[in-house]
Amino acid sequence: MKKNITAIIQARLGSKRFPGKVLKKLSNKSLIEILFTRLKESQHLSNIVFAIPDNDENIDLEKEIESIHAAYFSGDEDDVLKRYYMTAKKFNAEHIVRITADCPLIDPMMLDEMLLIYSENNFDYMSNTNPPSYPDGFDIEIFSYEALDDAYKNAIDDYDREHVTPYIHRNSDNIIYNYQSDIDFSGLRLTVDDPEDLELLEAIAKQTPDIIDVSYEEILSIFKNKPELKKVNNNSIRNEGATTGTGQKLYRRAKKIIPGGTMLLSKRPENFLPELWPSYFSKAKGCSVWDLDANKYIDMSIMGIGTNILGYANDKIDSQVIDAIKNSVASTLNCPEEVELAERLIDINPWSDMVRLARTGGEINAVSIRIARAATGRDKVALCGYHGWHDWYLSTNLNSKEALSDLLLPGLEPKGVPKALEGTTIPFAYNDIQSLKKIFDENKGQIAAIKMEVSRNDPPKDNFLKNVRDLATKNDCVLIFDECTSGFRETFGGLHQKYDVEPDLALYSKALGNGYAISALVGRASIMESAQSTFISSTFWTERVGPTAALATLREMENIQSWKIITEMGYYIRERWQELADSTNLDIKIWGLPALSGFSFNSKNDNLYKTLITQEMIDKNILAANSIYVSTAHTKKVVDHYLDQLSLVFEKIALIESDKININDCLNSKEAFTGFKRLN
Questions:
Q1: Splitting the chain (680 residues) into consecutive groups of 10 residues, what average pLDDT does each group show?
Q2: CB atoms within 10 A of CB 333
Q3: If DSSP codes are grouped into helix, strand and coil, which group holds residue 622?
Q4: Residue 10 is inside which H or E element, if any?
Q5: pLDDT computed for residue 408 by the predictor
Q6: What is the pLDDT of residue 154?
Q7: Which of 95, 145, 148, 513 has the fewest CB atoms inside 10 Å of its own CB, making it the most exposed?
Q8: Percent of the chain that is helix, strand, coil (3-state, to 5)
Q9: Where does 483-609 show beta strands of DSSP type E?
Q10: How far is Cα of residue 575 from the mean position of the Cα atoms in its chain?
């Protein structure tokens, strides 16, 4: 048997989910007393010590440890690796058993069996958790002082410093061994992270004469005889404190203080992979994103909701912005860049005469409606597609909560929108000219504008756009093309150029600034001049970062002809998607612009498959679902790697479709949300 084996118990009182949990009582004893007493039954441990934070919050913990006559070391609360290292050094540990204080039922016989195997071999690291087969709460890790010393000196990531051992089992020179159960009991939860966990232990304690002496086998027997106990805490996640990412934890905090959890509902983690999506980024470059735990992902998903056509943190654009910031982003005077940008946008849209700038797509959509109503003296708007969150648009659902559902997004609630706006916006269906004609027939002389996306999921058919143009001209109303999403993806400018149809007003945002906040409305002078007859003004529409970024973005787009690059790659991705579907006998529908493409499965499990794709791909360090905004950073090498990994998911989906495996057995997450349902 190896010498100087020290069990170091990680303990603190500052748990956010269950404060003071390790001092909670079970059979009139604190959890740490139960754990300490059980560990003393080990035949091979040389010492048992606690490693606790050195702050006033843990004074009561110190007192409890002293009362049970145990030793401890107080160290850094956040750098737990350092605390462990200093504890091991103080107590001359040559080998360390890592145990956390929220696992009070650790079995000493199981520990001794593991220590015997560890001593007979030359392992750097040994555990019963990789993968887990024993209940959560029986987690044991064993490693040498040398391995700990190496981790302490070389681990850099915050995650490695907080959780002690990840660096060790990633960088061990010798064999890593996992102590495995013949039967998988990893679904049982006997740790204490939540009040429900303590309730379960209390129920178990009632089934045994003494919780101190209950063995692992006896605990399993209790569950066998009383299977209902499994339901007490079955909503909890195994090893949640360590396995739950920093971003996931932060999102839980966010949901308590931010209505909806995020500022942009399209970025809600529930839309991708509930409870498992990394949620927040620390940095991004090209088409790579790093989360708060320094995990690097390839973004084959929404790319900033389509804002970053030239990739994240493009050096040519960022350098221009940084120079502008050095000279101040705002002053009493106006920035000259707004004039230069207006002139450039008119050049790109030769049918236009004037420009107004804002910062977001929603803002510029509202501006366009205000101007159109001012120019015509009319109130009503015929609309098709998605155009933001403002009252004018959401009022569509005052007639019916589902009025906008057929256009794009279900679940948009019109609460808070004045009921007086009911009937001022009337939806029509894309590629259905008759539905638009009906609006004009029923509202003669009342339609101020036709507001629509040039194309989103399907291309125009049967001269649809030209017929819309003719209707607008005939009825003397304003034709507004919302190019916030479609702009600069197939042409250098608006998608309307491709179809040779000129609007009266056109809107740009998203790709215009390559991630920087900027939006623009371009239009004919006869209409745009009406902005002077109403009130349209905002302080931050005058800052210089957005216009500077837009000018730099336009120069780079034109220089490399980015729209051609992303369109070609979009077609390539679509072709490969279809090949994957054909090779696995899956029926998919591909939709969208080439550079903004998606697919759906002709199956009742369509959304479950979308969820599964996200789950499986994130394990491969790829952010993906069933659609992608293509950027110039998506090289063929990157895309082929993504498609190779996606092929494995398609193969699994094919097995599900043929009833060889069950979709519910494959998912580790709840099904992803669709639409804009309320979450909190």
A1: 92 84 94 97 96 94 96 94 96 96 96 95 89 92 94 88 88 81 89 90 92 93 89 63 72 86 91 92 96 93 96 98 97 97 98 98 97 98 93 86 56 84 94 97 97 93 97 98 97 97 98 98 98 95 97 98 98 98 98 96 96 96 97 98 98 96 90 63
A2: 7
A3: strand
A4: strand 5-10
A5: 47
A6: 94
A7: 145
A8: 45, 15, 40
A9: 505-508, 519-523, 588-593, 596-601
A10: 27
Q: Per-residue b/e over 103-131, b at no fewer than 16 CB within 10 Å?
A: bbbbbbebbbebbeebbeeebbbbbbbbe
- Say which residues have a Cβ less than 8 Å from residue 609's Cβ, sequence separation at least 6: 601, 603, 626, 653, 656, 663
Say if residues 408 and 430 touch (Cβ distance below 8 Å): no
**pTM (2 d.p.):** 0.70
Spatial distance between the Cα atoms of 219 and 515, rounded to a whole number of angstroms: 55
How far from chain centre, in Å, is Cα 512? 24
List the one residue out of 237, 123, 135, 144 whose CA is nearest residue 186: 135
Residue 357 and residue 341 in contact, taking contact as beta carbons nearer than 8 Å: yes
- Please provide the average confidence, as pLDDT, over all residues in the chain: 92
pLDDT digits (tens, 9 = 90+) for 349-365: 999 999 999 999 999 99
Rounded Cα distance between 69 and 16, Å, is: 28
Those residues whose C-beta lies under 8 Å from the C-beta of residue 40, and which sit 6 or more positions away, are 48, 108
Q: Are strands 125-127 and 95-100 parallel, antiparallel or unpaired?
A: unpaired
Tell me, what amino acid is at 479? L
DSSP 532: G
From residue 510, how far is each of 340, 554, 594, 627 by CA, in Å?
19, 13, 17, 17
Amino acid letter, residue 445: G
Q: Which domains does the chain carry?
A: 5-231 (3.90.550.10), 252-309+563-666 (3.90.1150.10), 315-559 (3.40.640.10)
